Automatic annotation (TrEMBL), chains A, B, C:
Gene3D superfamilies: NCX, central ion-binding region. Its main location: membrane. Belongs to the Ca(2+):cation antiporter (CaCA) (TC 2.A.19) family. This is Ca(2+)/H(+) antiporter. It comes from Sporosarcina oncorhynchi.
Amino acid sequence: MNRLFLIMVFLGVPAVLVGSIIHLSDIPIFILSCLTIIALASFIGRATESLAIVSGPRVGGLLNATFGNAVELIISIFTLKAGLIGIVLASLTGSVLGNLLLVLGVSFFAGGLKYKTQRFGLHDVKYNSGLLIFAVIVAFIIPEIFSQTMDDSATLTLSIGVSIILITLYVAGLFFKLVTHRGVFASGDTTNEEEELPEWSKKKSILILLLSTVAVAFVSEQLVHTFETLGEKFGWTELFIGVIIVAIVGNAAEHFSAITMAMKNRMDVAVEIAVGSTLQVAMFVAPILVLISLFMPESMPLVFTIPELVAMVTATLLVINLSNDGESNWFEGLTLLAAYLIIGIGFFLL
Amino acid sequence: MNRLFLIMVFLGVPAVLVGSIIHLSDIPIFILSCLTIIALASFIGRATESLAIVSGPRVGGLLNATFGNAVELIISIFTLKAGLIGIVLASLTGSVLGNLLLVLGVSFFAGGLKYKTQRFGLHDVKYNSGLLIFAVIVAFIIPEIFSQTMDDSATLTLSIGVSIILITLYVAGLFFKLVTHRGVFASGDTTNEEEELPEWSKKKSILILLLSTVAVAFVSEQLVHTFETLGEKFGWTELFIGVIIVAIVGNAAEHFSAITMAMKNRMDVAVEIAVGSTLQVAMFVAPILVLISLFMPESMPLVFTIPELVAMVTATLLVINLSNDGESNWFEGLTLLAAYLIIGIGFFLL
Amino acid sequence: MNRLFLIMVFLGVPAVLVGSIIHLSDIPIFILSCLTIIALASFIGRATESLAIVSGPRVGGLLNATFGNAVELIISIFTLKAGLIGIVLASLTGSVLGNLLLVLGVSFFAGGLKYKTQRFGLHDVKYNSGLLIFAVIVAFIIPEIFSQTMDDSATLTLSIGVSIILITLYVAGLFFKLVTHRGVFASGDTTNEEEELPEWSKKKSILILLLSTVAVAFVSEQLVHTFETLGEKFGWTELFIGVIIVAIVGNAAEHFSAITMAMKNRMDVAVEIAVGSTLQVAMFVAPILVLISLFMPESMPLVFTIPELVAMVTATLLVINLSNDGESNWFEGLTLLAAYLIIGIGFFLL
């Protein structure tokens, strides 16, 4: 399997490069890019895993989420530059939904097929669920509702204020977790780590992580350019492409690492990847994009469409409810996947 | 008391039969039907209780919910056939509200007057609350919100998709509870079951259960025909009749059994009846009706009115919050009843 | 500090009195009143603390909330009399938001800077969160949503019904806590109470409490009269004044006492003040005002604006999520304050 992914990377990246130069038609580029990203994601997953073994589950999880979302941030900046604000907001929504429902759902499900009940730290759950409610239910809903009786300038001011508050709280949260309350979060799957050896050395892991991230960023950009054609060919709306397609491909890295961890019964790391990545998108990537958009021709307010917001809010409530006992099983995973499917059909038909 | 119910059944059922043949006016039929159903409900309750003692609390609870909702399913199919989609959706809403707020509320309250604090299994609570959020908050809200910017055909497609997903997850949930994670749910009120003896034999219980269910179905149908007249006479809207009247009478069986169990301090069974019945309505009866309606002159989308949806969502959040510690007392029961009263007044005035 | 407050009270109260007689301009009266109320609040805080040491945390908390809200009730009746229904509803909203997010947030934050993790009784949390959901999510949302398809008369009838149910349940809750389930709530911060001595005798505390409350009521009334001018001068909307300014100044007493308690690690009392006060506003002050308004020229329905309602609902969900483990730390406090800031900016820009 790993050998196959290696071949896919060494064939896929040059192929996409050549394809983009010779202006290959969009459908083969789309398929090539998807496959290459999935292969690259496996490398990112393995490199992160090696690093995680060396650095402990928390830093490993953070690394993962960071490398997954660096890609998204880069793609979004290009999209913003092209003035496609709707697609940026849709892909942020898709990231939140994809991580909360799809990545966590597959992790719970796949892990649950192997282990009857899997456990993860309650302190992390508590921290994560508080911030999920804060970000999705307070910081996303308030601008949405209040903007309905505001003019555009006030809406933008509110968006900027909310963005700065989100970033500040996100940074304060890191300080809380890594400095003032470090010991509290240190527990978890100690039983599993005993004799596990990293696949690659620290140095090699970091190198592979960096190279793969750059390659993913390049391939992803080619992928984005095929979306318009795809919409026309298959009758997909921009909303569906942003929320579903970008989310699945753009979160392939988190996806791969989270499931790998879940199947090794290191559910702490899997949850940290899925929810940590969600929080990073909601509390860091989204507000940063609002602030960056101020220097672009068209500014982006932090105002989602009603279906986007409702999907994120219901997904958040479901995830918090299912995870708040620090246990998971295959049926909880299936419930999350069912929710993702319902929301996916909804966006497809919209 | 049991003797009185016996007399009511043996007088009531023939009386309703005769009344429907000689076209008795609607008000006496309404009163007769209600009384007969309540009496029949007591038999269903006692038969289920006997079976529950023989088969354990879980299967007993499932039996109860099934027999209560078989009646509802039959009534709804007749109503669908008459093209009264609004009343079907309203009575589904009423079933959810009636079970969550009224049945659970009276159980908590009546049981709480006798016992200071009553306990029920946390694993059941967790399973139930996850599915309640999934069904009411994801599967009911998404079609509602998304349908507002969709045409009728897309709305129906979405409704069909959501319905199939709901039924699939419901069946997967039974598989989870009864097969893969059977042991997890087996605990509970073992202390109370010690030497309890069933009132009737297994055979006799099943016979009474079947006969009573058939009788309830017949009487309920007569009851439904009186609703139009009642609306005119008393100024009740169809929404109020569906949400409140159908809910109270249609859930008389669950009502009776749940309270009986609560007062015997078998709160596990009482909660299983109330919430299990809610889940069966939301995840099985409602989607089955959507699918059945496809073969009828007018199809029914899974789109409630906004007041119906808001009432179900707020009720769900309240019940999950009150039950998530696995404990109940009279004040929690009163809180649920107060919520039911507020929603009831709302529908009455609408 | 206490000496400074003493001077402020003995200078401030007469100054406001003289100012109101000689018709001093509104800006100095506004500043004078605010300072005086803050100073008076410190006396109320110290008197309540003395009483709390004598009477135990629960009665102390109740005393506090009562004396804080007596002031609000008096101001609101004056405002109702002037027909300013919008400001009354806004200040009720502000009280809920101020107590839940600001008072609780500062308590968690300030207490958390001194103590790594602070604990409070889970039985109280459970009781409070159940009633918060009942009051804000059921009793406030239902009239809001249902009134959108109702005429004014039905809306008022619904408001009256909801108000009577709220008050009844509030009184039943006191009966539950103080009579039938008294022992359950009696635990808590027993470790801290050991040898603590009250600052003032019981008699002196009660006298100071009464005098300060009367003074606060008088000064607050003067303060209210300056609001119109302030709105004009600074471009503040009535909504912003009601929700933010009235909330901060009007809850200064709870504020001061709660923080004092939090910094003494008596988090049980701090939470009881903040959440108890919220519940008293939502379940007692608000419905009493609806009933009182029936005897005034213009009746007040229990229908908030959509932004007011959404702010209260999201704040409630956040607080319940953060407090349901019975633990707090500085970061949870900061999260609550960040939510308050977002909502504050929203109302400022509205």
